[in-house]
Amino acid sequence: MEQWGVPPSEKYVQFPLLRRVLLLKIKAIITMKNKIIIVVVFVVFLLWIGWGVYRGLDLRNNFEITIGQIDKISKPGWKSSGDYAIIYSYNINGRIYKGDDAYNYCGSLNNEQSVAELIVGKSFPVAYSTKENGYSVIILTKEIAKNFDYNISDSLLVYDSILTCK
Predict the structure, then answer these.
(1) How far, in whole angstroms, is CA 96 from its chain's centroid?
(2) Confidence (pTM)
(3) What residues have CB less than 8 Å from 126, skipping those under 6 apart?
(4) CA dist., res. 84 & res. 103, Å (int)
């Protein structure tokens, strides 16, 4: 059966060069879109990392210390690499902020329950950004305290030695 005056056997034979050129153009467009998508994803990833580094450096340069309380222990969020997360809250000018920091199990602290029994409900110093009050770090170890030129009291050194297995 002929369609548009071209026998079925010759339907695609008449324009093989045009067909090949069109396929190559389509492939080039798809390849270009893929390259653009890859570049955009890469740039967004770099911006995300840069923002995190900026916030961390900004916190170390523009901070105040307040006292926060540990509310609970939970599974770490998607952005952290620890075994558990310490959820804490702190008060700045009458407004309550929450933060979370990831830690790894150590020694006899090998589950959320054992960590919770040790520190939930206790108060610890919190370094928060003066530019963005909701961005903070709870100071539980000497290593973290050193970042903020903060001297941990002897009563907190016990937690440092337990949480870091020293």
Answers:
(1) 22
(2) 0.68
(3) 65, 66, 67, 68, 88, 90, 99, 136, 137, 138, 139
(4) 6
Structure confidence by residue, pLDDT tens digits, 33-69: 888 888 899 999 999 999 888 888 888 889 999 999 9
SS3 category, 136? strand
Q: For residue 96, report the phi and psi dihedrals to the nearest 5 degrees.
A: -90, 130
DSSP state of 10: G
- Spatial distance between the Cα atoms of 139 and 152, rounded to a whole number of angstroms: 8
How many Cα neighbours within 13 Å face the side chain of 53? 6
Specify the pLDDT at position 55. Answer: 83
With 0-12 / 13-18 / 19 or more C-beta atoms within 10 angstroms meaning exposed / middle / buried, residue 45 is exposed
Instruction: State the Cα–Cα distance between residues 66 and 82, nearest whole angstrom.
Output: 24
The residue ranking higher by pLDDT, 26 or 123, is 123
CA-to-CA distance for 51 and 150, rounded, in angstroms? Answer: 25
**Bridge-based pairing state of the strands 63-74 and 84-92:** antiparallel
Q: By C-alpha distance, which of 100, 67, 64 is closest to 85?
A: 100
Residue 86, both tokens: 């310490």
